[in-house]
Amino acid sequence: MKVYYIGVLKNAEKPALQLCAEFELSEFSRFTRDQYANFMTMISKTVAERTAPGQRQSVEEQDYVIHCYGRSEGVAGVIITKEYPTIAAHSVLSKLMDQFLAEKPLATINAAKANDSIPFPPLKDFIRDYQDPNKASSIAKIQQELDETKIVLHKAIDSVLQRGEKLDDLVAKSSDLSAQSKMFYKSAKKQNSCCILM
Question: What backbone torsions phi and psi does residue 26 show, to the nearest 5 degrees?
């Protein structure tokens, strides 16, 4: 689970304008980080442009998922993740947009005309702190605990079924043994019938 990009974009007009963004691209080669950053900026602008005010959406692109939350103020929060729970991603976006709009007046947002023109230092904290989706959403944490519990239950059920199969084998063997012991008893009775003591 990884968060690669988190940003706030002005999507009231086209093309969308990236007001501020942070990247976590340390797993990529230094030579390719700029290309990944450009790709993520481009795809976040595209998704932000196509997200209506008040709408939330998640778009898959290869192994990545682009989550977007469009606000009625003409801005959208975008987060690009890999194997990150949707609930947690949208929870992060809600927190991000609430904090951004509380700290930045609409006049400042509307006056922005260039990419990365509104500094927002808390983005560094967001991308660092929310790499773990359990910190983003208590629902995600509960979901993870449920998934772990399901795994334990499946293992327990499998072991019970294996024990049941072993018991079935023992019952089958005991019924075979029982038939053999009856035959032995009958043949022993026949053999001993000639030697009756009086």
Answer: -65, -20
